[in-house]
Amino acid sequence: MRRWMSFPLFWLLLLLLLGMILANGCGEGGANPVRPVNGFIEITVSAFEFKPDRIAMEVGQQVILKVANTDNARHTFTIKDRGIGAEIFPGNSATIDLTGTGEGTYTFYCSVPGHREKGMEGTLFVTQRPFIPTPSSGGGGYSY
Prior knowledge:
Layout: H1 8-25, E1 40-46, E2 49-51, E3 54-58, E4 64-69, E5 75-79, E6 84-88, E7 93-97, E8 104-109, E9 121-127, E10 134-135, E11 142-143
Parallel strand pairs: 1-4, 3-9
Antiparallel strand pairs: 1-2, 4-7, 5-6, 8-9, 10-11
């Protein structure tokens, strides 16, 4: 056995390198969007985030979104491009009909001052065919 392999520093550096490789492949941005189940998508709002923060549907699909606020603060679910704005008080939920949403990529967010800046936003993908994300060239986003 080689002498350099017995040094703790070698093993520590190897472990750090492996951790960085695994963390890079498991980033949040690579998560597949949630699709409707029986025409419904459920989103939970808490701690300045939407879970899930990426949802997808097809044009013409009947989709009802249920947004539950499990936080202690008031939040909103807003899609400005669609004219959707629902205020959701702590412990309550809102039901939003996304049926009729045209093809495109929409950003949803909380419009309470300061909340969007803290990361309260997500993406709705509406496609003509089932959404299958593929890494786009450049920009780090997705194309479909």
